[in-house]
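Chapter summary example: a protein plus S-adenosylmethionine.
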Amino acid sequence: MPVRIHVAPDRARCHTPAVYDDLPAELFDFHHSLLVDEVRTTGFLRALLQQIRPGDVVVDLGTGTGILSMFAVIAGASRVYAIEHGPMAEVAREIARRNGVENRVTIITDWSTEATLPELADVLVTETIGNIGFEEGILTWVLDATKRLLKPDGTIVPERISLVAAAVESRHDYAKIARLRRPVHELDFSALTNLATHSILWTDLSPVSVVTEPATVTSVDLAAIEHQDVAGSITVNARRDALVHGIGCWFVAEIAPGISMSNQPPTATPSWSHGFLPLLEPQQVEAGDPLTIEIQSGAGCSRWGWSLGLGEAAALTWTTSMTPLTPPPRGPSVAVW
Ligand SMILES: C[S@@+](CC[C@H](N)C(=O)[O-])C[C@H]1O[C@@H](n2cnc3c(N)ncnc32)[C@H](O)[C@@H]1O
């Protein structure tokens, strides 16, 4: 059954362009959540007004509906190359036409890594910022685009992305893991929890669940990317006695000088959740305990590994790890696979 997205109800009543016929319904929800996230849209609009000079050429990497391309036009760009690999590219073309900017916005239907431009851009803008900053592949895309699509002294929006983490106590977020540790129809499916915990679980963390002070695990200047992956370690103190179920994480993005955005709890944005990295076994900690959190990505931030240990990084009393990517930190292992 073809899905129809009514971008303009008045017109859709009598005519729905064929371009919408094969679009998955999730795309509507996804892009709706992006468009109504005013912290996000306002932040990017302010950043582009600040960073684009009249006449600049702009490349919008992952244009989606084309909103950032149209912001770039409002900011004075003479031309915008709007790259989108997915079926939204055709919708973006129609949206640009309805907004009268089709002569200044060129939609390129391709992956950015495959796209070529007839000229280098003065400004690169991309909102491929994941829930924990990096998992939508922003480092891979920007590393490639700065080499091939942007002038050597070009401006990148956003400027810097940081991954922030804290230990969390959350039975709610751990419930899926805990459930499969118990038999289902008297059968043992606990091996499935290993599978589930190879990837990050997405949730909306309550600030009440945060046990330690949050700290920045890693921070990347997008004009100086060295790797497609990130790794980092923090040692933070427990604020109270708690049963730690996992590591909560989120991002801070510096979009342009003086303009930043974050989904740090309790901030709830329509378009970004938080990451929950479950521990193999929940761990009891006491107020004041130093906890060392290590997080590392692989395969261009599409795989993640993590561990939590009691003590300073160099002298851990125990560690518990869900990471298939790295050997566990030093110290006797409680539960590592
Ligand atoms: C989070 S959405 C943002 C859309 C739009 N820029 C906005 O701000 O509303 C990211 C978009 O980038 C596209 N995308 C992600 N990586 C891409 C890449 N490397 N090349 C082209 N499109 C990409 C996705 O298909 C998606 O439409």
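Key point: The first helix runs from residue 9 to 12.
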